[in-house]
């Protein structure tokens, strides 16, 4: 479907002002991959010496671009690099044809930018199971290369949208030894969102110097606490890709900087939250805090069970404080739980304690709380020190409307 959906009620006011990242330029065009007159391809070209890290979907049916990128991550960084992304077609479940499309695109970009094919990364997002008309993209690569602009990141963010209702961007700047380092990222994602590495397509750029092994380790660690802690509909995409590129243009070595790591975490969490806020048909942004679990992993299991429950999500959509559905989701998760130690809160409202409804609980107060756009559901299991936070959204009829005619 064309991107004519109304803007999410949870969307930020506007696309943020992102700092120019030295060593990376962007361009975007309308190539007619699936729809005419819609910007649907972006190209980013990175300076020589750029370190590139990435994490990708663990889906057994991952796309040809994902498989190609996985093979290339970790290559020597002497040369520059390029990232080519199209929307409208995911080039997934397309067999050998999909592989040929990736090879053709990588060669075309390499020829245009004078880069080795091993340093060209591609991604595709959109409908699954249809051959990618890669020749339409190849016909526009010269135009992309000719219009590269250090300030073109907003256009790149718009080009990778599918059912997204707004372009997603985030940035932070951090002082390291008296010098400023910048980080800027873009993301796409709205449906088919569930954590299983990274989720959706995300591209983050920094002018810091960070060696590739450290960049890869840092990305994987922060991903586990950001994109792998969000879910819209419990479905993991065939195309999920998260790439982090450090150009080194600032000449500031951030390899061991904790301040840099903290700023990168903020950018990733900001983008992850924006994806949830653009969940297909979403009207509520929900933070689920789980404490007192037997371990952090078990806390995350409980949190995802709550976040992915259609009964919980529809109750939230209906502004119904049906805390029994929280109890149900905890009980079915498979992680350790003791009914008689369980406490539940909606915001500051104590709903249940020690396995029973709180004597001070007010259904009217809870119902009033559920009318808010941003909600917190807190669960304490009383078993140990394990904790996790998961972010999700509600499930409305809008989700059905969007997905029932996605390919039309």
Could you please describe the fold and organization of this structure?
- The chain is α+β, with helices and mostly antiparallel strands and 408 residues long.
- 31% of the residues lie in helices and 25% in strands.
- It contains eleven helices and 15 strands.
- The chain has helices spanning 64-72, 95-113, 134-146, 153-159, 212-224, 258-277, 296-308, 310-317, 324-332, 363-369, 397-404; strands at 24-29, 41-46, 51-56, 81-89, 120-127, 168-176, 179-188, 201-206, 241-246, 285-293, 343-346, 349-353, 356-357, 374-380, 386-393.
- The longest helix is centred in the middle third of the chain and has 20 residues, at 258-277.
- Mean pLDDT is 92; it is low at 195-199.
Radius of gyration: 22 Å
Report the β-strand fraction as a percent range: 15-25%
Main beta sheet, described? 6 strands, mixed
Helix-strand makeup class: alpha+beta
Helix percent band? 25-40%
Looking at this protein, list some descriptive labels.
single chain; 408 residues; alpha+beta; five-stranded mixed beta sheet; 11 helices; 15 strands; 31% helix; globular
Would you summarize the structure shown here?
With 408 residues, the protein is α+β, with helices and mostly antiparallel strands.
Reconstruct the topology from this structure.
Elements: E1 24-29, E2 41-46, E3 51-56, H1 64-72, E4 81-89, H2 95-113, E5 120-127, H3 134-146, H4 153-159, E6 168-176, E7 179-188, E8 201-206, H5 212-224, E9 241-246, H6 258-277, E10 285-293, H7 296-308, H8 310-317, H9 324-332, E11 343-346, E12 349-353, E13 356-357, H10 363-369, E14 374-380, E15 386-393, H11 397-404
Parallel strand pairs: 4-5, 8-9, 10-14
Antiparallel strand pairs: 1-2, 2-4, 3-9, 6-7, 7-8, 10-15, 11-12, 11-14, 12-13
Helix pairs in contact: 2-3, 7-9
